[in-house]
Amino acid sequence: MNLKQVLDQQISQVLSDISGEPSCKALVNQSKSVQFGDYQANGVMALAKRLKLNPKQLAEQVNNKLDLSDFAERIEVAGPGFINISISDKFLTQQLNLLNRNQLVRKSENTQTVIIDYSSPNLAKEMHVGHLRGTIIGDAIARTFEWMGHHLIRQNHFGDWGTQFGMLITYMLEQEGDVKSELSNLETFYRAAKTRFDNDPDFASRSRENVVKLQSGDEQCLQLWKSFIDISIQHCHELYRKLNITLTEKDVVPESFYNNKLAGVIETLDKNGLLTDSDGARCVFLDEFKNKEGDVLPTIVQKSDGGYLYATTDLAGIEHRCRTLKADRILYVVDARQGLHFQQVFSVAKLAGLADEHCSLEHLSYGTMMGKDGKPFKTRSGDTIKLIDLIEEGIQRAYTLVESKNPNLSDTEKQQIANVVGVSAIKYADLSKNRNSDYIFDWDSMLSFEGNTAPYLLYAYARIRSIFRRAQLDSDAKYQIDIKSPEEKVLALKLLQFTEVVEALLIDCYPNQLCLYLYELAGNFMNFYEACPVLKSEGELLQSRLGLCQLTALTLKQGLSLLGIETLDKM
How much is the pTM? Predict the structure, then answer.
């Protein structure tokens, strides 16, 4: 339980005692976080309004009943009925010294099985910038759940079935070269096949025939199909390694995995009386989903030719994840434009009993990466940017930056730093934005050493590490902390807030909250470092300030690790 939760609990109990209401927890949850020495309890005013009491008088009653001698050095009623609690230096000192340097945050007590579906690139095509957000946002959320002790299952849903594979198989059969050689550039091969499909009716007809052959188990088609899959997955995982993404090949759950479950989904929907025939297609109509004209929108689960759709596969996926994998929460990190699709699928799944009531289905949507022109980020010629090209450009720009700032480093050191800074800058620029918002991709701002950027945080961490290195001190030793100055207190409060921020991320799944916290922590440290000389101190004061430096470095490192960002000891 973090400090805010402890204070919330204390105040909600007092409010319940005074009002006679069984629980005032919801009111107290409006309270502000513990920061800058004060905790502000706002629940008093809401309760006073409900009970038709004077807020200030009710706040005084609460103040008289509160026993916070273990936490606070001062409690006062302010304004129309706020209760401001100033956390004591003694309590902060005690809590910081109790922190486990190897853990920092107490792991979740009520662990859950959490499945997170993210990345989901298109097979037989190279990953492009459109795949970046879902991949890195999903990975940060997955890392956090896993670190906090939950049973985390990653799922990378690859589309590996359908007309596009008939098209690719048909084009490959026309080529005379080796499969690996032909697929050395997936994007070029896909475009050539797509051009044939769009412009040659005979080719398109043969492609559809090969889809049927593939689905019927034709040996040659299956062999070529598997080649496309294997090479595509290899390309994806090369990029995952470069981006420090935790997805592995065992996390791949392709669309074809659900093929033998689709007919069962239709049968379940039919048994529950949810299916309606519409122009030969089988649909579910739910009154809660209507267009602007007021017409009910269908969730189509089977086409007139008997084929299945994305909705059918997603329903099968929900049933498998809920029933077989025993998920408590299923999180889909997918583009915001798929919002209606997931709303419909989730509603149908619950109505049909494909998902248990206790299982939470959540669409974690994200916006679009935009260019400076305010349009989706593309090359000057209007083409989609390959993800590998974006990563390599980021590393090259970072190398130029490192060379200008620290030319005395060896080429090996410059390249190592550039690799970390380039990739981190791309990832952090995205993660630091609210995932629901579009954002402007700007190399200059993301590689800046000022503001809420990866280089700023990496430099803050490296600066702390240099303190121990210069003084030849053991950065892993246990240093006893004793809070004295205002700057130390602000830094201490921010360090203790780490638990609260991580727990909030598990609830709402917004990595930008963690980014903001790390940025503020780095700023608090810089203020502390300027006001409180570390290596010029002696004795217990030196030990205490080294302890604050150590905890700040550990928190920055762990926080960045949850975001999938490596740290550097030297920049």
Answer: 0.90
Which of 111, 120, 41 has its CA nearest to residue 83? 41
At 325, give phi and psi (nearest 5°): -90, -5
Residue 549 CA to residue 96 CA, distance in Å, equals 12
Class of domain 114-157+256-369: alpha beta
Work out the number of other CB atoms within 10 angstroms of the CB of residue 337.
10
The shares of helix, strand and coil residues in the chain, as percent rounded to the nearest 5, are 55, 15, 30
* Ranges of residues in the chain whose predicted pLDDT is under 70: 1-2, 19-47, 124, 177-184, 379-383
Contact status, residue 552 vs residue 520, Cβ threshold 8 Å: no
d(CA 435, CA 132): 12
Asked whether 398 and 447 are in contact (CB, 8 A), the reply is: yes
What DSSP character marks residue 74? E
* Domain locations along the chain: 3-87, 114-157+256-369, 163-251, 387-562
Q: For residue 227, how far is the Cα from the chain centroid?
A: 32
Closest C-alpha to 454, from 515, 541, 521? 515
Q: Which residues contact 451 (CB under 8 A, 6 or more apart)?
A: 445
Beta-bridge partner residues of 91 = none
**DSSP structure string for 1-60:** --HHHHHHHHHHHHHHHHH--S--HHHHTTSPP-BTTEEEE-HHHHHHHHHT--HHHHHH
Q: Which residue has the tokens 């919330």?
A: 8
The rounded radius of gyration (Å) of the Cα atoms in the chain is: 28
The one-letter code for the residue type at 167 is: M
Dump pLDDT digits (tens) for 466-490.
Answer: 999 999 998 888 999 999 999 999 9
CATH class of 387-562: mainly alpha
Q: Is 343 exposed, middle or buried (0-12, 13-18, 19+ CB in 10 A)?
A: middle
pLDDT at 431: 97
Which one-letter amino acid corresponds to residue 219? Answer: E
With respect to CATH, is domain 3-87 assigned 3.20.20.70? no
Nearest to 377 by CA among 334, 446, 440, 437: 440
Do the bridges between strand 151-155 and strand 82-87 make them parallel or antiparallel, or are there none, so unpaired?
unpaired
pLDDT number for residue 255: 87
